[in-house]
Design brief:
508 residues; alpha/beta; Ribosomal Protein S5, domain 2; Rossmann fold; Helicase, Ruva Protein, domain 3; 4-stranded mixed sheet; 17% strand; binds adenosine-5'-diphosphate; binds magnesium ion
Length: 508
């Protein structure tokens, strides 16, 4: 048998594809080498080296003559390494080492030079795709990836350690049991921080509770040391648990990037991403080689915290605009286009001015009027329009700092947040948050009492709110009313929502 075929798979972005690995051997050609067609140049070279060595070091020999490996479809950009194992198997099948047909196998894995099978990225999206295709294929994966693979049920998956083991299994000289799928348990472990550690700052805590409950974007402004970073880092402790679907969505993204812990791969906690302000557009938005997902996608279903937001590069802030609106991002890179989910809650923090002390009673601010204006203007266009809740975080008062008052725990706050999450799931009958209501949904779900209506009219005129700002106020008022377990929005709900729009009337 000189011609053989086996299936493999790869991912492009989060989308999986089947790859046909075909091998043909021309024994009449004297050149004793492998030709791989359908991979990028560098990938081919590396793959060839690994496959050749792995075959030899596993005690097999390459068939004599020219070995042509074709990876179809050829125009699809493939990451070469995950195809190694399938290529090796197809070659060994051509040379007669494998006794049975290989067409009903799907094999993924990178090979080490010694024939060991190494982990690959994207096992979860790949297996979910295979399942979606109702495939009867027998799937072989690297043993290292078995916990990740066990998230998916209903497939015949065989984890393998090395090439010899796989050959013995396929030749029926060795028995392997298919992987058992794991029970999905989303119980969140304890956090090592808690809101009870934050003294005072009642208004900021209240605002973060509202943000968490409706997934509203929030901006905190205050002098250095006032606790902005401290508050933001405690946000994950009050977010409601993800649904199984949400957890799998997030885990798929981390799988594609290769960021899963092989021993505990399922991402159970809503992500909290905290990129540094020197980060590039590619690392935050996505891009670079293979159009990799960025921080905004790693924050999907969770929080993107941009600390010291005016220090971020202008192009990064500009590029956030569209994903903030759409909840997803499309990244193009040479031939590859990938769309990633990016539905996150933006939490931003900033000082009032570059030195941090503008407005401080001590008068020690050293910034010029122009410095302050430039500093604040940087976020005014792209970001401010997308912020639902703006709060000032004042310097902590000495009395609050030394106070013995027991502050409320994250657990308590979280209970209220969860209740509001349930109200939203019931209201929308889908996985939607108040912050993401459409214009239609706002009309339908934000009924104001007559008094609230009157107050709203006055406030909108006085603050000269734009259409977008009007909608934001209503969405936030909806979440405040939900926290109050009130169907209709009353004037106290509206009044509080207006408080979170102080930037509209600010001088800068
Ligand atoms: N409200 C507070 N309660 C307790 N400690 C606080 C509070 N605010 C600030 N701190 C202390 O000050 C430190 C600096 O706060 P941080 O969150 O970094 O301020 P910011 O980000 O506003 O500059 C914190 O790590 C904490 O030790
Ligand atoms: Mg800080």
């Amino acid at each position: 048998m000189k011609y053989s075929q086996v299936k493999s798979g790869t991912i492009n972005g989060l989308n999986a594809f089947f790859i046909d690995v075909e091998v043909d051997v021309d024994p009449k050609t004297v050149i004793h080498d492998i030709d791989i067609v359908g991979l990028g140049d560098t990938a081919v070279k590396e793959s060839k080296k690994r496959v050749k060595s792995a075959i030899k070091n596993s005690g097999y020999s390459l068939p004599f003559g020219r070995i042509i490996v074709n990876l179809a479809p050829g125009d699809l950009k493939k990451e070469g390494s995950s195809l190694d194992l399938a290529i090796a198997i197809a070659i060994l099948s051509s040379s007669g080492v494998l006794k049975y047909r290989t067409e009903d196998w799907l094999i993924v894995g990178e090979l080490g030079l010694d024939g060991s099978v190494r982990s690959v990225k994207g096992i979860l999206p790949l297996l979910l795709y295979i399942k979606e295709q109702n495939s009867e294929l027998k799937v072989v994966i690297p043993a290292v990836n078995k916990k990740e693979a066990s998230i998916v049920d209903g497939l015949k998956v065989y984890p393998v350690e090395n090439l010899r083991q796989l050959v013995a299994f396929m030749n029926r000289d060795l028995e392997l049991k298919p992987l058992e799928s794991a029970k999905i348990d989303l119980t969140v472990e304890e956090f090592d921080v808690d809101f009870s550690e934050v003294k005072g700052q009642k208004q900021a805590k209240r605002a973060l509770e509202i943000s968490a409950a409706g997934m509203h974007n929030v901006l905190m402004k205050g002098p250095p040391g006032s606790g902005k970073s401290m508050l933001a880092k405690r946000l994950p402790t009050i977010l409601p648990q993800m649904t199984v679907e949400e957890a799998i969505e997030v885990t798929k993204i981390y799988s594609a990037v290769g960021l899963l812990n092989p021993d505990d791969p399922l991402i159970k906690q809503r992500p909290f991403r905290n990129p540094h302000h020197t980060a590039s557009t590619a690392s935050i938005i996505g891009g670079g080689n293979n159009a990799r997902p960025g921080e905004i996608s790693l924050a999907h279903n969770g929080v993107l915290f941009l600390d010291e937001i005016p220090e971020f590069r202008r192009d990064v802030l500009e590029a956030l605009r569209q994903p903030l609106e759409d909840g997803q991002v499309t990244i193009a890179r040479s031939k590859t286009v990938a769309t990633y989910p990016a539905r996150f809650m933006l939490v931003a923090a900033q000082n009032p001015c570059p030195c941090g002390y503008y407005g401080d009673p001590s008068g020690k601010c050293t910034c010029s009027f122009n410095d302050i204006r430039k500093y604040n203007k940087k976020i005014s266009g792209p970001i401010l329009d997308r912020i639902d809740i703006m709060i000032e975080v004042p310097k902590l008062e000495y009395e609050d700092y030394v106070s013995k008052v027991q502050e409320e725990s994250s657990r308590k706050i979280r209970e209220r947040v969860i209740k509001v999450r349930e109200i939203q799931l019931y209201r929308f009958k889908e996985n939607l948050w108040n912050s993401r209501m459409s214009g239609e949904q706002i009309k339908k779900h934000c009924q104001l009492t007559p008094e609230a209506e009157k107050l709203f009219k006055v406030g909108v005129k006085r603050l000269d709110l734009s259409g977008r700002a009007i909608e934001k106020t209503l969405k936030v008022a909806r979440t405040i009313a939900d926290l109050d377990e009130s169907d209709s929005i009353n004037s106290s709900h509206i009044a509080e929502a207006f408080q979170y729009r102080f930037r509209e009337v600010e001088f800068f």
